[in-house]
């Protein structure tokens, strides 16, 4: 039987984006058995109700009212997913759904497929040169401190078999914000799973503002990178 794909979409105040993104994902996955899990941390803009009202048979909307957080929402989605293949992506078009088929198809050959903005420096238009450059430097920093072999340790767009990710300790990884991805990439390499990087362009956020505090994040991620290093000496 064909394998089932579960796309995990954590979201906060993304009503407009999620209503546009979900049908686009559905369209790119029309040749695959799939479900889309929308995990909303009770956004004030009513993201959860908006997608629930659509009543799509391939969507599982999940409302989280306690213990909020980006990485914890992703964990919740993974735990509730019924698919054999897990895909995690942002719900604001920063992660472009056009890459889904190539990511899924390559899971025939690799345990995990990650999208990278820095493989062959895949670039097109982008809305944040500062963000791109700071991410490039930060990836170098992570590679030096943690010995990571991949070009992208921050983006958070990946596909993995459920049986593979289930071999990782979720308590070690899924908390905080984007720093969870540094830990995910670290532990998946530590377990010696095979990883394929595919070049990906950083998509433009369609609407809304998202998390603007880039400097605060750099400081937090630096701290978390050192903590991870010392925990795994
Ligand atoms: N469930 C959940 N999703 C979140 C939270 N914070 C951000 N997100 C979602 O995570 C994704 C990335 O957030 P964004 O603000 O765009 O971060 P950036 O792209 O790294 O600047 C978006 O799809 C957000 O809607 C949260 O606390 N809970
Ligand atoms: Mg974003």
From the structure above, extract its key features.
seven-stranded mixed beta sheet, binds guanosine-5'-diphosphate, alpha/beta, Spore Coat Polysaccharide Biosynthesis Protein SpsA, Chain A, 233 residues, binds magnesium ion, 9 helices
How can the largest sheet be summarized?
7 strands, mixed
Specify the CATH homologous superfamily. Answer: Spore Coat Polysaccharide Biosynthesis Protein SpsA, Chain A
Distance between the termini: 43 Å
Q: What is the general shape? A: globular
Would you list the SSEs in sequence order as H and E?
A: EHEHEHEHEHEHHHEH
Helix content: 40-55%
**Total individual domains:** 1
Strand order, sheet with most strands: 3-2-1-4-6-5-7
CATH fold field value: Spore Coat Polysaccharide Biosynthesis Protein SpsA, Chain A
CATH architecture: Alpha-Beta Complex
Total DSSP helices: 9
Secondary structure category: alpha/beta
Bound molecules: guanosine-5'-diphosphate, magnesium ion
The pLDDT mean sits at: 94
- Beta fraction of the residues? 15-25%
Number of β-strand runs: 7
Low-confidence blocks of residues: none
The CATH first-level class comes to Alpha Beta
How large, in whole angstroms, is the Cα Rg? Answer: 17 Å
Describe this structure in words.
This protein has 233 residues and is α/β, with parallel strands linked by helices. The chain has one domain: Spore Coat Polysaccharide Biosynthesis Protein SpsA, Chain A. It is built from 9 helices and 7 strands. A 7-stranded mixed β-sheet has the order 3-2-1-4-6-5-7, with helices on both faces. Strand 2, helix 2 and strand 3 form a beta-alpha-beta unit. Helix 5 runs parallel beside helix 9. The longest helix is centred in the middle third of the chain and has 18 residues. The structure holds guanosine-5'-diphosphate (GDP) and magnesium ion. The site of magnesium ion has 5 residues, from loops. Guanosine-5'-diphosphate binds next to strand 1, strand 2 and helix 3.
